[in-house]
Write a structure and sequence with these properties.
The structure is a single chain. With about 290 residues, the protein is of the alpha/beta class. It has one domain: Aldolase class I (TIM Barrel), CATH 3.20.20. The protein has 11 helices and 8 strands. Helix 5 links the parallel strand 3 and strand 4. The longest helix has 23 residues.
């Protein structure tokens, strides 16, 4: 199937009051698992590569990006590529030629005025090249090993009035909002501020994005989608599934040395996680068309 674009997938989901899940991929097994999971439930999906993943891959974007493009083009469901949490302008400028149709430009660590200026410049550059761009306002926390913010800490929630101004002045196509989730959670115990989400949804005219969704229970995720979230980011949940399956496989086979055995177990566990989460966040969406070729 031809490579899809993030803007088309998110726009369709927002119109249907459903959501598209975006899964962070680090290895080829992640890429294959996300596509396999999406195909098993016939749902569109985003393959998401973070700046941290690029750093892990010796700072090289293209090897993983080209694998993701190949997997997306061979998929039986629509798949798009998204470059996530980009702070480096150099990495941002690699996105169009690497197959990405969208970028999350992350200047949320900066004071508001600097965040706005940097994001405006990134949005202008991206739009001139046909890229859809996402930004973040408020601090979701848990990134880079930092602990999540206290729910009442200054900046730990997105302010609706500030968000309205930020979206208008920056020109972004979507906004990641801080409503109670946190990056890198290993337990699904996050409780979202649905009243704030409702206010943000009513205030903003761009799709809303939920980061840190691995720590959000199914019922909370479903309620968030119903409340206006159109893109749901998932990363840690895949790593938990993969690592757990590999540990179990090796514990039962202490003599094993062939990496294909335990990587297969890890890939299959991630695919099951993908399928389950896609069904939670995309229940309102129509089933994706089947591929014309096997």
């Amino acid at each position: 199937m031809p490579l899809a674009t993030t803007g088309d997938l998110i726009g369709r989901a927002a119109a249907e009051r459903s959501a598209v899940a975006a899964f962070n991929v680090i290895t080829l097994e992640h890429v294959e698992a996300v596509v396999a999971g999406a195909e098993s439930v016939r749902r569109p999906v985003l393959l998401q590569v973070s700046e941290n993943a690029v750093k892990y891959r010796y700072g090289r974007l293209l090897p993983l990006a080209r694998a993701a493009v190949a997997a997306a083009e061979a998929a039986a469901v629509p798949v798009a590529l998204h470059l996530d949490h980009v702070q480096s302008d150099g990495l941002l400028r690699q996105a169009p030629d690497a197959g990405f149709s969208s970028v999350m430009y992350d200047a949320a660590r900066l004071p508001y005025a600097e965040n706005l200026a940097a994001t405006r410049a990134a949005a202008d550059w991206a739009h001139a090249r046909g890229l859809w761009i996402e930004a973040e306002l408020g601090e979701i926390g848990g990134k880079g090993g930092a602990p999540p913010l206290d729910a009442h800490a200054p900046g730990a929630r997105t302010d609706p009035a500030e968000a309205r101004s930020f979206v208008a002045d920056s020109g972004v196509d979507a906004l990641a909002v801080a409503v109670g989730s946190s990056h890198a959670m290993t337990t699904r115990t996050a409780a979202l501020d649905h009243d704030l989400l409702k206010e943000l949804s009513g205030t903003l005219d761009v799709p809303l994005v939920l980061h840190g969704s691995s720590g959000v229970p199914d019922a909370e995720l479903a309620a968030a989608v119903a409340g206006g979230i159109a893109k749901v980011n998932v990363g840690t949940a895949l790593n938990i599934a993969m690592t757990g399956a590999i540990r179990e496989h090796l514990a039962a086979r202490p003599e094993a040395v062939d990496s294909r055995g335990y990587l297969t177990a890890g890939r299959e566990a991630m695919a099951r996680t993908v399928a389950a989460l896609l069904q939670v966040v995309a229940r309102a969406a129509p089933v994706a068309p089947a591929s014309a070729t096997p």
